[in-house]
Design brief:
The protein is α+β, with helices and mostly antiparallel strands. The chain has one domain: Phosphorylase Kinase, domain 1 (2-Layer Sandwich), CATH 3.30.200. Helices cover about 15% and strands about 40% of the residues. The protein contains three helices and 13 strands; from the N terminus they run H-H-E-E-E-E-E-E-E-E-E-E-E-E-H-E. The strands form three sheets. The chain has a seven-stranded antiparallel sheet with strand order 5-6-7-12-11-10-9, with helices on one face. The N and C termini lie far apart (about 40 Å).
C-alpha cells in the first residue's frame, strides 16, 4: 500500500510523543546509574508524564544532492513552560563529514576554541567578546538529538536560510538563548549569551559547510 508524504508527516508528531512516553520510569530501571548521569537525565526519567501536543518543523531538503528529500526533522512541545525537543534523522548519509564555517562573525568576537571529530561526526566553535557576550556552535551528524529546557523559557519557530528552526529564549533576567536547526545531514545547535535573538539568527544564517 502506498502511503503519501502528507500521511507520514501527519503521523510524525504522534510518533515522537510515543517515543518519549516510552522512556522508562525511574522505578522500572534495573541499572544503577551514576549521580551525574541521573542529574542530567532527570527530565527524561521523571515519574509523571503528561500528554503533549508536538509541533513538527519540516526542514527543507539540501540543495545539492538531496533534491526535495528531508534529512532531519524537529519535533518540540511545551507544557507549563517546560520545553522538550527531538531532532530525528530521516535517513543516513554516506557523505564525509564537512566542517561548518562562519562566513562572518559579529564585530568584537574572537575564536577561543575550535575542534572537530570526524569519527564522532562533531564540530564545535566557541567565540567570546569580553566577559559578557559569547556563543558556541555545535555541528553533529549521524545521531538523533533529544533534549529539554527548564520551565522559565519560551520556544518559537524561526527560519534559518529557508529552513525552519527552534529558538528558545529564557524568560528570566538571563540573556542566554538557544537556536536549533538542520541543514542537509547536519544538526546545528547555537548557544548564545549576551546576544539578541536577531543577532543569534544572523550568526546562524552565516553558517556554511
Amino acid at each position: 500500500m502506498m502511503i503519501s508524504e502528507e500521511a507520514l508527516y501527519a503521523a510524525a508528531p504522534e510518533a515522537a510523543e510515543k517515543f518519549l512516553s516510552a522512556l522508562p520510569d525511574r522505578e522500572d530501571c534495573v541499572h544503577d546509574f551514576s549521580p551525574d548521569f541521573e542529574a542530567r537525565m532527570a527530565t527524561l526519567l521523571r515519574r509523571q508524564r503528561r500528554r503533549r501536543h508536538w509541533r513538527a518543523l519540516l526542514a527543507a531538503g539540501l540543495s545539492v544532492g538531496a533534491g526535495d528529500r528531508t534529512d532531519c526533522q524537529i519535533y518540540w512541545s511545551q507544557t507549563d513552560g517546560e520545553l522538550r525537543y527531538v531532532i530525528r534523522l530521516e535517513h543516513t548519509t554516506t557523505r564525509p563529514f564537512q566542517d561548518a564555517q562562519l562566513r562572518c562573525v559579529p564585530e568584537g568576537f574572537i575564536l577561543v576554541r575550535g575542534s572537530t571529530s570526524e569519527i564522532r561526526g562533531e564540530r564545535s566553535l566557541a567565540y567570546r567578546r569580553g566577559e559578557d557576550a559569547s556563543f558556541t556552535l555545535m555541528q553533529t551528524q549521524g545521531e538523533d538529538l533529544v533534549g529539554s529546557k527548564g520551565t522559565a523559557c519560551q520556544g518559537s519557530e524561526v527560519e534559518v536560510n529557508g529552513r525552519l528552526g527552534l529558538l528558545v529564549e529564557e524568560e528570566t533576567d538571563s540573556t542566554e538563548k538557544d537556536l536549533l536547526w538542520t541543514d542537509g545531514p547536519y544538526i546545528f545547535a547555537l548557544h548564545g549569551k549576551g546576544l539578541s535573538a536577531e543577532e543569534l539568527l544572523e550568526i546562524a544564517r552565516n553558517v556554511t559547510w
